[in-house]
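Sequence and fold
=================
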Amino acid sequence: MSEGRAASSRWGLWIGLVLVAAATIAIAELDSGISAWFGTRGIAKNPLEYPLIAVALGLLVNVLLKATKTHVLLQPAMRTELFLKVGLVLMGARLDVTQVLSQGLGGVIQGLVMVTCVFFFTWWLGTKLKIGEQLKAVMAAAVSICGVSAAIAAAGAVVAKKKEITYVTALVIVTAIPLMVLMPWIATGIGLPADVAGAWFGGNIDTTAAVVGAGTIHGEEAQAVATVVKMSQNALIGVAAFLLALYFVVRVEKKPTERPSAAMIWKRFPKFVLGFVLVSVLASFGLFNAEVVGALKTLSKWAFAMAFFSIGLELSVRELGKMGWRPLAVYGAATVFNTLLALGVAWIVFGALGF
């Protein structure tokens, strides 16, 4: 890289980071203002979650940057994957392992059933429709576990392309927000008990924030159950990442003259998942006080806001269009399967069996 291009890249990085920081502050203010507006109208939970606001603002700035031909200059600051990884590590403070173990046997059972069935259904359908192995893995993890966080962990394990991560992340956000609003309304309409409704939300909606939002809209009991169920699925992120790394090393990318080794699997394993587990353990067993846990949760939200804004900045409709209809069909079918299965499993586990 020439000295002039290097200097331009550095300037683009710093200017872009200032832009991302300013946008994140704007997102926080918009989120607060929108929440207050809904609050004055008797709606306690803002139905427009901050990831949607962040992506929308990112898309708007994306259009402006491309119109002024400055988009390429600021690309060095669009560190979507880095921001997501930081957010995921800090999100470990939200996963209380002791709560899952002491209160969430039903959630653990539902989480294991849902993750296993939805993952392999998505994998099977992706194979039938012949989508790429990496995209199939990222999509299966996202739909079955917990959306964006699982997608990033899976992407690291299978070395997915950046556009594949962006594609799946966009689908997760676009799908989760309507489900957050519609599912509590449907649950009330068909007369689901609060615990069954909460288990349905937690087992189906693909982002933790939207799960909590759906539970809050329905009621406190539904929110508590939804949170435990989703945390049970979140806890499987590391397991899924390890198994995907193992599978890709042993089966997908194995060369005839190469013998898979533990070192190869370790190299592929996304190390930031260990940070997520460490923070979760430290928070769960009281090694962080309430103030530290609260600060980590807030920082996680800010990191995710930066990531979602960057997704909007990087999103290219043209590039996504090149992915074709097959990945969209797989994701849509998997979401429908997830929704129906989660309802059935929630009814059995929390209704018939009474967990």
